[in-house]
Amino acid sequence: MELDKYDLAILRALQKDARASLNEISEAVGLSSTPCWNRIRRMEADGVILGYTVRIDPAKIGLTDTVIVQVTLESHNDEMLYEFGRALDEIPEILEAFLVSGTYDYYIRLVVRDTRDYERLLRERLYKIPGIRHSISSFVLRVLKEAALPLPEGGRLIQRK
Description:
Blueprint: E1 2-3, H1 5-16, H2 22-29, H3 33-45, E2 65-73, H4 78-89, E3 94-99, E4 106-112, H5 115-124, E5 132-139, E6 157-158
Antiparallel strand pairs: 1-6, 2-4, 2-5, 3-4
Helix pairs in contact: 1-2, 1-3
């Protein structure tokens, strides 16, 4: 699928404010409502737009600490990787998990109330997952940047399948 300058402008507008009305998006990108709506629906159907969500301040709901956990597994066979991923999916405090290259196998980002809550999570959930050989945890002290995806201003973006 190719994304043209209008598609990219729509994506930019939605990243800025996913609650913007169709009229606001149409005006921002220079299209009338019907073609704008058709493009949005096409990008949803093609999986470019994965969904719509709300950003919540974790501290306002009592999740004051973010932790990055680096994990090494004992084995790297397909079954171990699948089961580990499935186990991570069962832990609601885990926001993201990345299989990575380098010294560690996974980088995991999670949120907790405090250090005691993190210790509980380690004991009761994370360390009960079979196959973990080693882990190291780092508490996030300050978030310096959170950003939307960088989208080119013009031209075409070709998505590979």
